[in-house]
Amino acid sequence: MILFTKLLLAHLLGDYIFQPTKWVVHKEANMIASKYLYLHILIHFAVTMLLLWDLKLWWWVVIIAVSHYFIDLSKIFANPYFKNKSIPFFIDQALHLIVLYCCAFNSDLLGNTIGLFKEINWPLVTAVVFVSYPASIIMAKLLEGMSDRIELDHKSLPNAGKYIGIIERLFVLVFIILGRWEAIGLLITAKSVFRFNDLKESNSRKLTEYILIGTLLSFGLAILAGLIYLGT
To answer: Transmembrane residues, as ranges (predicted)?
Structure first.
């Protein structure tokens, strides 16, 4: 596990700390002819060798560097075909992690993978999944009759409310698992403060009631998921 951690740290340093934005822009513009693409791979190789500090592992570092080159190059060529640029980015990062994992556990890849799956906390995974999109859909169905009566006179980011709800429920779930119930109260207070100006400017009782019901319902679903998890 230490080996994988070092490889992951080297990846984070090479991809995020030691890669300026102008390098990324230059790579996307010049593709395979970009000098920064090769400099980026060289930095990855150097940082990985430095962190491992073991010349016996040079072969695996070469494999990581070469695979990093082809994965990055594939991402550069694939970028124009995606409207949502986050999709190729996350695919790129996932492929890098798979390579690092295979290199770190090459001695018993299958055994380590099976062991990893056996250690997964499935009740926790189920709780996390539930408080994300399923809870959002349940809330939308429960509040469907009310949302049609609310008139919004301000613009908002697309799906911002849904993502805010998912993040807050994840926080509530974590706080319950850690036994920090008081933090949930602080979260509700913080959300109320941020919402205060919107409610004050709208001067709408219906909107206030709608937001209050939605907030309590969101927190309630997260608390329910947390209690059920603790009870399993």
So the answer is: 36-53, 59-82, 94-114, 120-140, 170-190, 210-230
